[in-house]
Structures
1.
Amino acid sequence: MFRYLIAVGNQQSASDCEILSCIRRRMQLSSERWHTLYHPGFYSAHIENDSSSDAPVVLHDDRGIIFGSLYRSPRASRASIADSGSQTRVSFISRDLSQRILESRGRSITTDYWGNYVVALRYPETRRSLILRGPVSPLPCQHMRVGTLHVFFSHVEDCIALNLSHLSINWDSISAQVVGGDYVTSETALEQIRSIECGECIECATEDCIAHSYWDPRSLLSDRSLDNFFEATAIVRDTAQYCANAASSSHAHLLVNLSGGLDSSIVLSLLSVAPHRPKLTAINRYSGGSGDERHFARIMAGAIGCRLVEQPRDGALDLRRIGECNWTVSPVLNFSAPDIESRNITLAREIGASAIVDGELGDNLFGSNIGVGALVECFRRHHFQREFRTAAVDYALVSRQSLWRTLAQAIGEYTSLAAHPDFSSTRELEHHYSAATARSMILASASAEEHYASTGKRFLHPWLQNSRQIAPGSHMLLFGLIMTTSTVYHSPFGRPSDPPQLSPFLSQPLIEVALRISAHLHVRNGLNRAVARTAFADRLPPPILQRGMAKGGPHLWAKHVVENNTVFVREYLLDGILVQHGLLDRDKLEAVLSPRIERSTAIVGDIFAKLYIEAWLRKWQPLTSPRRTWPATRYA
């Protein structure tokens, strides 16, 4: 992942100039090779990854710099879908384009380009700077104030090394994460650091900071203009190919995670016809039970004609490795990373692959788990016409229930919108299960749940607010988009020098298409993900195309790993910081970790989550002992 740091301040402030000079000196003395750009009141530094070609793009006259990867949008590019690829990648910004970007205050980048990027723009005539994070950018952008100086960065280790400010733990954020509620917002688990949202632009002036929203998926959800099934399939196919071509264009050899499911198979098929014809090697990680999908992976790899590497998941994994997780601004919750992340990186280097590709976000993008809210959307548009009646029958078939029960659920969903216009993880969990069952699946204490409830909407992401009212069938898409672009989803063990992770589905053009598709179109003829199945019907072998609702996963492997590490997990959590602070229910934890208890998949997932949070707290505790700190970063 691209590594950068930006510092902006008031060039007439002695304090800002002193701190800025200190940062520059420390960067110059660093053993690492930082590439820098300096103007009075503005400083940027970055380290280029040998495994990536994402060199920054500098605007004319040094008026700005773009970190990460940038591509022309399908609307702005003259390249056809078949020829798109390296032609869409941006490595130079002309004087005229620089002027357009500056005059639009960066807004033109969000409409004419896409990618995994962060932009810094200078306006010396008004002593202002703008920092913009791309609308769909996994590249993080964290913000910390040091006096009146503003520091933006991708990796918190660099802030630690600079020793600019003492940091303190945001226990409210930790509590929200512990109870399994909504917690992915601009607040991080460190009081002094704020995360810039995707599509958000921060305007830094001499006295304050102002946050502007340049891109909000709710504006596309309110449109939902793609209501024709075959039009939707054609646009999805073309846009997915365009994004895969562009994202892979700088890589000659790719390692592709191939589970054998629909999403990873679509990704492999897209890469197999990319214009630059990269060499492809697929990797399948398998485990017992439903976690063994080698049969389907072999079929897909054979159809494409690429090499398939098969490796078992490590059932003897030592969970003490979680204690080695990276420094991050919030605990990272990556279920299978302790097992497969380092092995994928090692394999990529062994075979000479310059990037690792996955099908992340495919489930959310293509409607794997469409809820009854999709019928509410359809009814609003079509009332009791044929489109709604057909959608209701299809939903009943997919959910394996009667039509009358389906209609009753749709009515219940419709009547609840006024009282509950927001999407909420807690409410969705309690709606899917009962409130009592939902609580039994989480190891949080009652006091932690009560405290979280008292925070109201503080930890509810802006994109989830009023979204249930706008598009009741969009929860999984929004939730997936928020998670995959947040710090919580980042690599807990990887390093910036590792081969980059590419997720072709996590691309702004494709996500904007998905946001416009009426949710009920994803259910058709008794199958989910109908748009994707039809769009790629000629690319996928019938056994994969016709796979039903059943989906494999590492659930049995995860249970075995927890059982094999029960002694460590008991000691680590029962004697840990979360229990000491009363955030975990000690009695429930002891019962769940008893060798006599049969652990559910949900409980196993929560054990992994609590291990990550505990490890994060133990890592940060020595650096966060109480003393004077800078105030938490807040915006006007």
2.
Amino acid sequence: MSSSRQRPMAAVPSRAHGRSDPASTFEAAGALRPPASLGPIALGAGLLPWLQLRRWPVKAYLGLLVTLAVLNLFRHARFFHDDAFITLRYARNLIATGEPVWNHGEWVEGYTSLMHLAIVAAVGWLSGAEGDAWVGVTRGINAVALLCTMAATAQAVHAASAQRVEAWRTGCLVLVAATPLWVWMWGGLEAIVAAAWVSLGLWAWMKSAVWTGTLKRPGWLWTSGVFMALAVATRPDTLVLVAGGAAAWVLGGPSEGGRQGQGHGLQARALAMLRWVSPVLLVHALVLAWRWQTYHAWAPNTYYAKVDGIAWTHRVWTGLHYLGTCLWDVPYLPALALALAWDAQLRRDALLRWATLTLAIMLAGIVWVGGDHMQVSRFLVPSVPLLALAATRCALAPPRSSRVTWVLAIALVATVLSPVVRRSQYRDSAAWAGQLVGQLIAAQWPQGSLVALNTAGAPAFHAPGLRFIDMLGLNDAHIAHRQITTTDAPMQSVPGHMKGDGAYVMSRQPDFIITGFAEGQLAAESMFLGDRELARLPEFKRCYRFEQVDLPFDQRYASMARHPPPTLQLSYYRRTCPHSGAAAASGLHEAQVAHAGAEVAQVGQDGQQLGVAQAHPAAQGGGVLVH
């Protein structure tokens, strides 16, 4: 009875002239057709036939895609992350002085993406951006990148689908429903730009026909490598994706004629991958040479702050936890891994095998570096086009196992539901409070003052006339290179918040110190390593006075936060002792003040009445936490 409800398997054409059509390796049925072993139970439930996307009318399917796109687009429009303001400060300084620096005269690469910085600075210069207009600049760039990602990935998915409606629709659905793409378009960072380059690289990869076992268009393979090189220049960790893809294809790709083999096939695949990675190696070498010439470092300072000097066991633990939190954002990813592990027929597809192995190597790299503290799977964004390609190939072959059928069905349902049930993203809490802090200190604190703080994005961007010490080390080479041996501060369990150095900060003798989160708190109550070390120093207790000042905001600004407090205060420490000769001789306190003043404008003058500071003994009071 159950077998009568199934369509007969399509015949697989025999090979001609030692070569097979990749589209002929699978039957025409969709991947979610219920197998015979389920019988009337699956069909009676009505779930699996409903999930056969090839049966959907075109208008219904397009309506689903548009609905998911609109949900993803407008529900997260208030989101912007604090770290994006770091890149914006670098871009503004680059335009004003020609120096890609955070503080004038201090050469530290505190941004991750050279390509993104160059694009943001160029667009900001051409548009004459000032103040909050910089947020629109980076969002506009990301919007173009998102459109490019959608278009290029759709083309790659179409080429991989062998003109099967079920497969093409599955890949496009996985792409459009991927909430991380849309969230990080608004978020201001470079992940979506890297995804655009990766999607263009996949499109050119498919055009080259290398995946059929015969490199018919070598120029397209080289073009794919160029796009991947731009992805690496945008996000260095995509180098792992490229290296993993090359290794996976050399070891597991098809030989001439579409057969997996050794000997001449292995050599041909190796030569093809050498052609593919050569632009990546060239561009990466140029970036390394520029980085060494400019910053005298081989890696971005963010690598040293987040990875170097941290025990690998700690990184792997936080990395695995991070992957666990990402499963709901991309539910098709774990289902894909289970499907290939359980179904040998799926593993016979060289393109699917390559895409899955490349994704696995990329995920292993994410685990090794310790994951990320930012929301909505930022590190997975460049991998989404590859996941859509893998989902397309997976939908070409009907699984032989009922459990694989149900795993893929559940994953497809979860893919549709993920953007529906996910709560809206608001302005990152550090960016929300940090903007108020930056506007106030720009107006009230003396220009050229040295400020130590943990929130390095919004406060520093909105106070261009001040100089800063990033106490988490993203923009400070000394703190970033510290070897960490203790993890007694609670925030050290959060990736990117492991480091600090209270003694070093005190040696810089900052004029102001904001301990804790963006709005500040007592140093002794802070959860950051550097703050706790500061609180134990005799000089800190003797030379710094705790003060608080109101941070006013209106209802419009409050609507950008998920849970805005009724009132907010900035809690900070002001230096009361004179600066020693050592700090003055170092040039750190007064250097480049004239350059910094060139960018000081009406930052924070939005018609709000700024508060007046109130002094407190260091042992009293406390800040109001937003986090």
3.
Amino acid sequence: MFQKKKQYVPQGDPELRRVDTVDKAILPIKKTEPNGVFLLTNGKYAKTFHIADINYLTADFEGQNAIFKKYSDLLNSMLENYKITIMTRKLKQVTDIDKLYFKYDASDELNELRKELNDYINSLSVDANTYVQEIYITVTCSKPNLKEANTYFNRVEVTLQQALSKMGSSCTPLNEYQKLELIYSFYNANSDVPFKYDRKKAMRLGHSYKEYVCPDSFVSEFDHFRIGERFGQAMLIKDFRQVLRDELIKGLVEVNTEIAISIDVSPIPKDKAIKMAEQKILANETNITNYQRKQNQNRNWAAELPYDYRQQRAILDEFLDELTVNDQCMFSCTVTLVHLADSKDELEQMSANLISIASGCQTNLEKLLLPSRQRGGLVTALPFGVDEIKFNRTLLTSGLAILMPFKIQDILHSEGIVCGVNKISGNLILVDRRKLKNGNSWILGKPGGGKSFFAKLQIFLIKMQYPNADIVVLDPEREYSPLVEALGGKVINISSTSTNHINAMDMSSSYSEDEADPLLHKSEFVMSLFEQISNGKVNNKHRSIIDRCAKNVYEQYIKNGYRGTAPTLIDLRNELLKVDDTDISKQVAQELAIEAELFTTGSLNTFAKQTNVELDNNLI
């Protein structure tokens, strides 16, 4: 039984408190570095990278085959030992679910709407999966010092990024805090206490990182272990069938509990692999020769080779062809699994379920027996970088790649709004558009399918989640007015007959989001406006004239510090009519002025007048 030993520090500093020295049994770490490089108890350095999931399950056959080939290339590019870990963690450990619900505020009249939103979010949360899948690669190396280890890990990161980018994925190195938090979340899965670790403060107080990570107790028994108040079990995939299926990892991680599956991989050099294959072939041929000699001595001249010998010969010949012809590599692999449960009965039931899933994929999954093997299986299955089981099985690249860790891409932004449930993973879809490369979206569906309702719900959620966000709704059907008014927004009716006007030429000093000249962006807007007016018939001559006239009409307004009356489209048209420096310029300006006449002095002049409505509301 491994428990925390109590130790007291000298009195003096009021912040110093009792510290706990934790046994090294379940933390095979000697030293940690702020950049995430860990020195392990076996003398090797290790670093863990988070791998972004991709949409493997939703891809068609050709897409899955392309991902499989690119993933195979990634495996072949890794030269040192590495560990692929697939972990499922509770959603609350990845994002704060409580932040999804809106707090009531007595200062406004929106509490009834907040209650409706909370009921909607709760209805989705009840049916949603409470566990999320994450993928990690832990790379280990034997280097004489930290500097050389950092150099190697930097090179590995570049290799991973290049290979993963071809698959639509990416990798992010974990720093010290992130990796310790990952270990803490598994060792303290039922704890509601968030992980808190400050390296500088811990060093000042003389504390070890182990005190912040380890559970209260760890007891290793014959076929399971107890970690804190929970039960756990380490298991091992002992035998792989000749034909593997890519559903194995997917099926195992879909069990709703904290689970970690690790594939420890040791690449075997190509020349050594070929030599091993040739030795196996030679041994099999020797057995065949001995069998035939024995049959000849018994005058059994017509004796056929037994099926086992013939099958072994075919398999070994194919194995050697894969190495020499098809550019396959050989790997020595150990696949371990550890899962947690709230009771011993639940643990046994879950173990039986996992064994059944593995059996359905023609794989033999067994419990590890003896306390030392349970403890070793635990630290092997987690992304430390150690392999204390060493139950190695030989796989080619195709056999290793078929243990596909990728499943489906979840969107779980920490400050995102609820947009539904992922039908594949069952997880909530939490989207923060500010964190996306492209925050735009389309709402598609059949008539009556709820497109407008979903759009209104998005406006509702964005307004509640991000009170300072600017929301502009273009509503030709006038169906969003009640929602905007209920949320305290402003409804502005714009038409050719309305008395409300918005000046298309309005510009402030903050018109440009970056530090560029606001006039540059406004000039581009005016050019795009004329392209719309003329149905895209604007060429470089037109753009030059528009740019020149735009600068002229804004000159005095900019000199006044963007104060006073801004120019209008009418002023711009009048400036175009003044152009007469050359015949060509005059002709081009006249064409533009005629195109703009309908929208300036004509009947569609709504945006050619000074703004007479207040635009200070962030929901319009």
4.
Amino acid sequence: MTANGRGRPERNEPPRDSAASGQPGNDKPGNDKPANGQPANHQPGNDKPAADGGKQAVASPGTSSQDRWLRRLAAHCWRYPSLVLLALGGTLLATAVTAVIPLIQRNIIDNSILAHKEPIWPGAVLLIIAALLNFAGVYVRRYRGGRLSLDVQHSLRTELFGSLSRLDGARQDQLHTGQIVSRSISDLNMVQGLLSMVPLLLGNVVLFVASLVIMAFLSPLLTVIALAVGPALWFIALRSRTRLFPASWDAQQQAANVAGVVDGAVTGVRVVKGFGQEDQEIERLEGASQWLYASRVRAVRLMARYNPALQAVPALGQVGVLALGGWLAIQGSITIGTFFAFSAYLAQLVGPVRALSALVTIGQEARASVIRVYEVIDSRPVLTEKPDAVPLPPGAPDVELDDISFGYVPSEPVLRGLTLHVRQGETLALVGTSGSGKSTISLLLPRFYDVRGGAVRVGGYDVRDLTLDSLRASIGLVLEESFLFSDSVRANIAYGRPDATLEQIVTAARAAEADEFIASLPQGYDTVIGEQGLTLSGGQRQRVSLARALITDPAILVLDDATSAIDARVEAQIHATLRKVMAGRTTLLIAHRRSTLQLADRIAVLDEGRLVDEGTHEELTERCALYRLLL
């Protein structure tokens, strides 16, 4: 997509199956991290890697390659052995009964109808029993096979989400919403559809082999004629496989791009309407949809070419078999019952052949889906916890930034040799020009990213030596962009402490000066807010976010311009409460408003990632020209 978001998305070139790469063509999102530390808003379809060569957010294709995807999926199925065995048992039972039925019919025709050697009722009873057994086998196969496919789908979806939640800041910056939504919904549905077909496909394979064995026993000559079309079928299947997989992959990539366009338009609906750019978003959607349409048409065209061929070729063999078989029956070389049974087995081969054609098409789509899902599951964070990491001791620790250097892109450093120390229980305010690294510090403290040089210490421990759970549990983080879930106000405030009582929730809301407006909502604390809290004002969202941080009773409080959208009267009330709340806590304030500085014991001035000066408001006003300019 062009830089300004207009026009069509770039075309994702799928891998060539002959190379067995199994990876998406241009599914490498760039590392477009802005200076303020917030993830970049990637445009759907802009899947080219950044100039810095940023790594993919998903694993390399080697972990989900052509020779592994099927084995991995089979191993995943084997986590539910009882369902696998029952589904296979039902399949084998139904297949065995289906294979025996023509032999029973042959015996009835030759010995009961034509020769009158046996009564017809024993054969009829056997056919009734066979029908009942076939029903039981098919029922078990469909029910247990369906359960298996749903269980595996649920397990894969859970693993995919778990993998996403473990990614660190650098990896999360590379995610494309449309791609993730597509892989967690559409691709997993495709995998579930494939798995639901597997018992039937296995049954068809067994039926195919069993029918050939019995056909060879009945008439070797006719069997050879029936198998004469085999090489043609094999050639068509291989030919279609090399073409359908890239077409399927590309179509799924384009579907993900469409999902990304829709997600961006829905999430930013107020911006779209505010700038009157509805037509532009429609054009973007039309552009992405045109690529999707072209990819789908390409896949459909290939399916229309190969599926009829796979079904027509066996019909040619069937004509030859029936002609020769009829002549042999007239000549007396085979019995009428044998000819009838052979014809029945020949008809039964049509089902496996059709299943083969379905497998060739659906299987290639499912293969692409499995690989795409496992790419996300296999993704690993760059930032990991040490095996010997220790928990952070309780209490209000000090915070030290020791000569730290950091940049979201290595060639573009944001912090350059910054050294700061926040004493235990002290409140330090950070001020500086835009892009000076203030918000970046708030993301380094809970270790969303690792510094490239120096060390961040909390309570005397390097954050890389601490367990992530204990470190992040000790920090109450309120970002400038207040994200809220589409849930009740109660659930949003208690998010970091799910077991909180209503009394504790109300206490945190009062501390954030949010109780009054929450009580005026239609259902009070049980009111469900809109997507990302859009039904609340900016100031209301910030107050709910502040209450969410306070309810966890953090030892360290990080406020990234947490009252920027709040009017002066309410801000003064919040500040009065915060003075009590911050007592005894180590607090880091990222300030853009002069009123916030009144809460700080000390103020640090940053510029271009370096410390310019630090001191009290009076000291800095007297000696720091940049501080006076910022005010």
